[in-house]
Structure formats: structure tokens, C-alpha cells
Amino acid sequence: MPTDPAKFKVAMEISRKDILLCLARVPETKRLFAGSSDGCVYHFDLAEEKPEGVAMEGHTGYVTGVAVAGKQVVSGAYDGQLIWWDAESRQKVRGFKAHDRWIRNVVATRDGKLIASTADDMVCRVWDAATGKPKHELRGHANLTPSHFSSMLYACAFSADGTLLATGDKIGHVVVWDVASGKPLGTLEVPEVYTWDPKARIHSIGGIRSLAFSPDGTQLAVGGMGKVGNIDHLEGKAHVEVFDWRKQERVAKFSSDKAKGLITHLAFHPQGEWLVGAGGDGKGLFLFLDVVSGKVWREEAVSNHFHKFTLDEAGTRIVTAGHNKLTVWEAMA
Amino acid sequence: MNSHFCGSSEHDVSRRAFLRTLGAGTGLAASGIGAMHSFATPSLNDTLKASGKSVILLWLAGGASQLETWDPKPGRPTGGPFAAIPTSVPGVHISELMPQMAKRMKDICVIRGLNTKNGDHGGAAQLMMRGRADEPSLRYPDMGAVLARELGRADSKVPDYVSFYAATEGRDFSRQGSSFLGARYAPMKLAESMVPPNLKRLESITELDHHARAELQQLINNQFIAGHGTGPVKSHANAYARVHGLMSSETLFDLSQEPAKAREPYGPTLFGEQALMARRMVEAGVPFVRVSRAWWDSHGQNFETHQEMVPELDRVMSALHDDLKQRGLLERTLVLAVGEFGRTPAINASLGRDHFAAAWSAAMFGCGLKGGAVFGKTDKDGQTVIEDQVGAGELFATVLAAIGVNPKKEYHVGARPIPLVNPGIKPIAQVLA
Q: Cα(B10)–Cα(B30) distance, rounded to whole angstroms?
């Protein structure tokens, strides 16, 4: 029996003064690591009665990527640094300048052996999680947009088995990479998320903000914001497209009627029962989709903008990191 | 409309000549009298007009963030993600998004204490362009019109006031205009194209015919003026001559005249091209050019917007600085970068910043200004001005003073004297060279 998305309710809220920009969970636990606008990584243990964030200081910019790899946590920030932390002691293991520009995302393979980081230098770097040594430097995205402005490499995601890695940029270009060889296996184009406005405001704010492979790795979901009239306010419809990436065929396209803004994170249910996207404009949004039938399970604007979330192994608990708040959502009977 | 005291332009001219003998600084500045007439001859401040001074306004429409440009607050909750970098002026830091301007800071003057009290796009744009709010019964001329009148030369073959505004958003917010100064000083607005419409000679008219017609018209005009030489008639003839001159200066609007080496520093964007065009125009004698870069209104994703737009501003502004300097034009050209307001220090839930007029910044360089000067200071979070607060009037007066126009000068609408800035408003002496 699939988890009914309608049953997700707020179970706990932790108010914050900062902005939580990224989130990772230690598998099979309620322990979380969140990246903050104050340059710290915070450790939360939701098993505690009153969980409070414990700061891990090391970055000098917004912390925008965090991943758990075995017994280590790796964080990346706008300062271009990657920092390895011991997940138990929360002590810094190593840190170095990994990118010349803002790091946008950090992800880990499920087995914890590899880390990938994407940044606005338009490079995705794959690292040995245990040693911090570089494995691949993946270059498949243009530095400039067609309008001559700097592009951004916002999103990356590993497949569940760790053999595939997808990267997505500001203009809607996706590359799927073979992790073993570092070679590209295919590309996709999602131009609708590139919200360049050539006439009214002459700039853009969109881009591919999230990627997720289906559990079997055959499908790739791409999230962002669709066509927008006024890009000042993130007024575009939340936008998700799902591809059979090997065939370069789009199998589903969702444009929300109820929720506006960016889809900043996507995840498939562990058994593939649904795809969940979150993000928002000034408010937050949830979008639960049945990729097979095209059915929208749940589409809802909520009070708090989300930047990232975690979904547990059973698909029954979602924790969202956002503006001034960490929120736990549980599927309640 | 006839607003001369007695309707006689001869009287007007003779009065000017008389008043000129009184000298400057009497408080009865003469050049404005008769300014309300759309065909009136320009002021007689010949020395200033002959100086060839110009102003380029880089109009940051929609409101650029002071925190991501000239007044960064790194490490503060309001500071956002960008670092501050040192500049060529010891102790002065600006946003890391402006490395080129940081290198040139010894030539740049930054005003960090603007409190303009108006956070509405339209009202604020008018305020900043005019230096004050309109009265119910009186609309003031904007900076371009005033400077066109004060700096424009009657014999000029180029426009006195050109305004580029390519984006559609906010294009009409500032309602640019010459008001009582008349259409003579209204902007030539270039929106969709960088070339004025109908500039080219009709193909059905040969070059020879075109010149012959102009000569015939001038002959008839001269004969008529000799017998009936009123101010309006002369001005009318001048207007024809200016249009003809404009048509003959078609190449002025042709950027392909610039070698690639000159174009490259400005970059490939429209803003860059328009800034280069502005340089060409001031070089050709246009007194006031507004180059608008819209739209900075980053209520959502402020940092993405500024990461895209500030580097462009940095490149274009520094290219303009270098170009003017290399051509010896910086001594007679003032460049001002400002919009209608700044943006809130508080970061909203969509990582945006909203309208904010209580503590924001402008930057200037060139003619009459003290390079490296930083005037005004905001608190540690950028919420309030804590030292040397100024408003739109002071900024307006500073531009006038730097360019050599006495801000206390008065125009007249009917019998009513209209000072260029409101009474009590003074230029910022600390930034004037």
C-alpha cells in the first residue's frame, strides 16, 4: 500500500533565525546535518525531546550543499570550499578550495563511496569520499548563457546504485554521466526552465534547480520553474519534467496550477510510488506526482519556502529545510 | 504658450544681456527667464556651454541593491552571500561582484547615505530624476532637461538629451520631461532601437536634393528672420537646422564605426552597447545621456539577479570610465550610477530583497568630483544612515555643482522664480573637487 501523500502533516517545527539551505540525513537515523546562511553546518538529532542545532564552524559563505557519506559528512559553500567532517565527533577532517565559484550542491552515492559537487565554475567534480581525492572533473555545461551572462550549475544527483550522475544548469541543459568512466552518456534539454526575459526585465532567475533518478535509474526528473510573466516575484508555475533519459523522451510534464515558484528539490519514493518536489516562491510548495499515470497526488502551497528536504527509507517522513525553519512532516494515519 | 513677462523676445534678450552684467551669484540668475517658451532661445551661459561638459546617467531601474554593490555588509544577517573586497582606496570595500570598479575606486565617489523616503517605483523615479517631488500645480524638469538647457548649445547639431531605455518594465515610471522648459529640452527617447526613427534620408530624395532643400529653407529663413526676427522664428529655424544636422550625423548612431578593440571592453550586452553609444554622444557634444539598465527589482532571488546583473554593471561602468579617461573626456564628463531606490537589508523568504529608500547608495565619477571620496555611513546591518544623510535634492545639487551649474540658479514660470533645487538644499561639498 503506497504512502498516501495527503497524510503528510507537520509533526514538528524548529524555528531558526538563519536560512537553512541544504539538508542531509544519516541513514536509518533521525540525525540531520543542515547548511546555513550563517556559514555553519548544524547537527540536529530529531530523536531528542527538544532538538537544537549544534554548530560546526568552518565555511565563510552560505552553506549550500551537504551530504552524508558513511561516517563522514561533506559540506560545500559559496566560499568554494568542501569540508569533510566526522559525523560523530562533528570535527573537521579536511577542507580545501574545490571550486572557483559558488558551490551549489553536494551529493553522495548511497554506499557513501563517492561525493559530487557542482558549482558556478560550471564543473562537476567527483571525489573519493574516504580520501577527498578527485576522481573526475566533468565539463559539459557552457559558461555563458545565450544572452552572454554567466551560467550556473545548480543541480546534480546520483542514481540509487551510484553508477549514474546527472547535472543540470541554468539554461536547461542536462548531462547524464557514467560515474565509472566520467564520460557523458546522454543529454537532455529543458528550455522552459530558463526564464530569460528579453523584453520586459532583461534578466533571468530560473534554471534547473533539482534532479532525481527513479529508483531503477531509467527515469530522470528535472525541476525548476516554468514560464513566468514577472520574474521579480518567482510567479511562474512550479515545473517538473520526467524523462526516459536513454531514449531522450519526455514521459511526463507537470506544471502546477496551485503552487508557484522553483522546485528546488526532487526525490522519488524509495519504491517509486511517487515523485515529490518541494520549493516555492515567498511561500513553500509540495508537489506529489504519480509519474506512471500522470496523476497529481497532492499539490499544495504551504507557509514556508523550502530549499531542500530529506525523505526517509520508508517514505513516511519528510524533513524540510527552509527560511527560518526546519519542519518535520510525517504521514499520519 | 507665451510666458515671457511682456511677450517680447527682444525684451527677453535685452533683459538677459542686462542681467548678465550683474554677474553671477546675485540670486537673480538670468538665464532661466523665458525658459517656459518651447521655442525660446537657450540660456546665455556661454562659458559653461562652451566647456562641452556632459553627464551620463546610468539609470539602474527597478532599484539595485546597495548591499550587493557599494555598501556591502559581509558576515551580517542582512549581508547576503557575497563578500566585500578591498579597493584602490585603503579602507574602502565594495561587493566582490565589482572587482573592476574596486580597482578604479581612486577615481570613484560613493554616496552611502541616501535616505530618499520614497519606496514606490514611479514616485521614487520621479524624485530621483528631478531632485524633488512635484507640486500639485507644477511639474519640475528632470536632470536631463535642466542640463540640456544649461549645457546645450544653440548651434549644436546633436540632441541635447538622449535617453535609452530598452526594457519595457518601468520605462514610463520616471515620466522624463522638460516640463516648463519646453519641448526643446525634452529627451530623445530611444527604446526599441539605438537609432532614432526616420533618421535616414528618404530614398526617393537624392543627397543633392536633400542639401538643396536645406539650403533653400535656410535662405528663406534668413530672409524672414532679417525682416521679422522674433525669438520663436529663430528657434523654429534652429529646430530645422538641428534635425538636418541630426540627419547628417547618422554615423553617430552607428556603433559599427567603433573598432572591435573599443567595443570589447563594454561587452556584448545591450547595456554595454548603449553605454558605448553614450560615450560617442558625449564626445560629439550631447550634454546629457541617460542609459537605463532595467530591471533590478529582485523581490525573489535577489542574489541570482545581482550575480547576473552586477558583473555586467561592473564591466560596463569600468569600461566607460577607462574609455572616457583615455580620450580625455573624464575632465568634462560626469557619470552617475543610481536608480530610484535601493533594496531592503532584510532577506525575504524567496531570498529576495524588497524596496528600500531609507539607507542606500549611488556612485559617481568624473568631472568636478573628488575621486575616492565616500560620503555617508550606514549602520552595521545597513538599516539606517548614521552619518551624513542626504536626499535626492542634495544628489541633484551635487551633479549640478560638479558640472558647473549653480544649484541656486532660478528659472521663472510667469513671475514665479523656480530655483533649480529646493531652498536650503546644498551640494555635497565633501565630494566636490
A: 15
**Which residues of B fall within a CB distance of 8 Å from A35?**
none
Residues of A in contact with B121 (CB under 8 A): none
Residues of A in contact with B311 (CB under 8 A): 149-150
Average the pLDDT over B39-54 and give the result: 66
Are B178 and B141 spatial neighbours (Cβ–Cβ below 8 Å)? yes
Which three-class secondary structure string do you get for A112-125?
CCEEEEEECCCCEE
Interface membership of B192 toward A (CB under 8 Å): no
pLDDT, position B220:
75
Strand B108-114 to B374-375 pairing: parallel
**pLDDT per residue as tens digits for the range A150-193:** 999 999 999 999 999 999 999 999 999 999 999 999 999 999 99
Q: Would the CB atoms of A232 and B350 count as touching at under 8 Å? A: no
Q: Kindly state whether B301 is in contact with chain A, defined as any CB-CB distance less than 8 angstroms.
A: yes
Q: Nearest by CB to A201, which of B83, B169, B269?
A: B169
B172 touches chain A (CB under 8 A): no
The pLDDT tens digits of the residues spanning B360-397 come to: 999 999 998 999 999 999 999 999 999 999 999 999 99
Is the bond preceding residue B295 a cis peptide, omega within 30 degrees? yes
B87 near B105, Cβ under 8 Å? Answer: yes
Residue B133 and residue B411: Cα distance in Å, rounded? 17
The three cell numbers of residue A123 are: 564543473
> pLDDT, tens digit, for every residue of B123-171?
999 999 999 999 998 999 999 999 999 999 888 888 999 999 999 999 8
Chain A positions touching B352 (Cβ under 8 A) are: 233, 282
What are B87-133's pLDDT values in tens digits? Answer: 999 999 999 999 999 999 999 999 999 999 999 999 999 999 999 99
Strand partners, A69: A72
Q: How far is CA B393 from CA B8, B63, B340, in A?
A: 34, 18, 13
* Beta carbons within 8 Å of B401's beta carbon, 6+ residues apart: B368, B407, B427, B432
Q: What is the ipTM metric for this complex?
A: 0.95
d(CA B121, CA B167): 15
Look up the pTM and report it.
0.89
User: How far B59 CA sits from the closest chain A CA (Å)?
Assistant: 14
- A31 at B interface, C-beta within 8 A: no
Which of the residue ranges A14-23, B175-184, B223-232 has the most confident prediction, judged by mean pLDDT?
A14-23
Q: pLDDT tens digit string along A235-262?
A: 899 999 999 999 999 999 999 888 899 9
Length of chain B counted residue by residue:
433
Query: Are B295 and B169 within 8 A, CB to CB?
Result: yes
Taking the C-alpha atoms of residue B266 and residue B166, their distance in angstroms, rounded to an integer, is 17
Distance from CA of B262 to the nearest CA of A (A): 18
Task: Say how far residue A56 (Cα) sits from the centre of its chain.
Answer: 21
